[in-house]
Amino acid sequence: MGKFVDRPKYICAMGGAVATLNALPGVVPILHAAAGCGFNISNAINGGGGYVGSGYCGGQSLPSSNVFEKEIVFGGEGRLEQQILSTMEIAEADIYFVITGCMVEMIGDDAVSVVKRLNKGKRLFAADTGGFRGNSYKGYDIVLSKLFSEYVQTGLEKDERLVNLWGIVPVQDVYWKGNLRVLKKLVEGLGYKVNTFFGEDETLEDLKESSKAILNIVVSDTYGIDAAKTFKEVHDTDYITTDFPIGDHGTARFIKEVGTALGASNEVINALIKKERKRYYGYLERVVDAYSDFDLQRYAVIVGDANYTQGLTRFLSDDLGWLPELVIINDLLEEEQKEFLRRKFSDYESGIKPELVFDTDASSVLKHINRHWEVNKNPRYYDSMTPAFLIGSSFEKETAQKIKAQHLSVMYPVSNRVVLDRAYAGFEGALTLTEDIFSVLLESR
Amino acid sequence: MANKKIKQIAIYGKGGIGKSTTTSNISAALVKQGFKVMQFGCDPKSDSTNTLRGGKYIPTVLDTLREKTTVKASEVIHEGFGGVYCVEAGGPAPGVGCAGRGIITAVQLFKQQRVFEELDLDFVIYDVLGDVVCGGFAVPIREGIAEHVFTVSSADFMAVYAANNLFRGIHKYSNAGGALLGGVIANSINAPYAKEIIDDFVKQTKTQVVEYVPRSVTVTQSELQGKTTIEAAPNSEQAKIYTRLALKIAEHTESKVPEPLDVHELREWASKWADHLLALETGEVTSKASCI
Ligand SMILES: Nc1ncnc2c1ncn2[C@@H]1O[C@H](COP(=O)(O)OP(=O)(O)O)[C@@H](O)[C@H]1O
Ligand SMILES: [Mg+2]
Fold first, then answer.
1. Mutate to test the pocket of ligand 1, among B21, B132, B231 (most ligand atoms within 8 A of CB)
2. What is the mean pLDDT of residues B139-143?
3. In chain B, where the domains are located
4. pTM for this structure?
């Protein structure tokens, strides 16, 4: 039997699809699943996503076919058809998107052909997102791939100043909207227009015409790659993958990589970096006094997803001058993805080499910490990993208390904070992150 | 109400091997002996009880459930020859939904409503699609439903293969209170080597042959009249065999856990028989080889 995941930090493929669709403007998801799916998914999205709320047609208003035994035995396509038609009548939307749960896929219901039969053109789509296909990230990829291949127009002339950017997964990245805003602004700084689909002021029209873009920038090595491959296949647009950038060291690289891929001149690239740095260090400088007066350097343990752990560790090590000791990545990854990721945790300017652990069980964090740094058994001299700081999710709150470390929830699930337009990406996000980290350090004062 | 124990039996076997024919004849023979019998067809084909009812189809449990949200078991029980209670589980149209889940739904509906007790039955015989392709078709052999399983098999390799698969299912559920194996009903056994093959198979798998039922035109003639052999030709040799089989099943008490062959063993076993037949019947091979 395969290994099960203890305390997963994601939901199923269908859950990821719901979160993705809810984050698009003017889109109403229609679930073809048992009644419990929509309810559970909504709770996980809201409760773990910094209280993102149900939005236009999410949460308890999610349309769902709510199949019961009758549909399981005789097939649920008829029920789905009813649900699609009534949803289209009642809920206003530009796009209706059917997604399927485990049970209807196991009995062979074919949602895609139901949608085809209804013949509603580019207003109605369907994708198989049965929970067993994977986790939230998979759902994100499935939805994007479907939209790229069926909604986005083909045969449009390329716009040499237009790019698309994704790889920041709504809700799984609790700060997705803020992060997309920041990254969009950076790429705009290189002289390009940017579609991010899920960000502020994005429209479905932009998505529809996104095939005009000359490059797709996937801000991840793990999420959104399938979608990028689909895009390449259908619209012949190349893509690059970049690390999720936080702070000067990460973001300067990001700008260079994107700028180089776009053929921007060194002057343009360096001018942008220079301008951003000036503002960044202008603010960051302020904490230097408190940092040294109160001795706020910390050992750090970073626990979470592949995108953030990489960006956070670089920021802590090279921007903040902290001591990252242990990094735990909880994502479900292939061996070659792990191999690829390992390299990203070994080239810090500080020369620090944190231990990198891949463990899909979020419940094992304390075990890894205790193994990494031997527990105090009261010898005369004990070199302890204190003071320490744990950056993870709400799941790690207790663990942090146990090792007497301070804690900040940055990655999903974030249940102890409300998140609105906050961003942690780029130069701008790193300032916010610094505020948040130092506010935790100083909260007892 | 008498507090007797209802004997619940499941009959499995490959599609078209003669399960429904055999089961219906057993049911008919048992009612003639004065027993109260229900035959429960668990095959989406829904034709298990046809020869007990003049060749006519009856509304199935699932058809009825499709129309209404709740079904009273009494609505889907139809009396057939000699008062046999006939039930067909039914199922979805081919290619949609989940037939296995349908069987589970139908069987559980009867169990929950305690129909067997109310009808004061002596026997419930489930006639189940034998390629136990998913959990749904195993439901009659799970705990608390049938206690004894019989499998209908010819000497045909595919039939033996299905029987062996069933044995694996029984083996799996056996330590969880599931049904045990009563034995093999050897159907269409006319040639001597067919008997040898089946005898060898039951020996290998540590079970027994309950009865050898020959292939007989009487069965076909009866079926064409929409009747069991017991009803249409009660004095025929074939009816005697079915009656003898029914009585053996009625008296049967001790079922066992079979020892199924694994895939390799089964293949080896089959090729050994193929070689044997070749050697035995050179010259006639082409016509008889299809039996293995
Ligand atoms: N012993 C037999 N002699 C002659 N015909 C038989 C015999 N057993 C089964 N048949 C015939 O084989 C066909 C399939 O039998 P059936 O009982 O419907 O199979 P199953 O229920 O296993 O699918 C029927 O036409 C039936 O009359
Ligand atoms: Mg049959």
1. B21
2. 82
3. 7-260, 262-292
4. 0.87
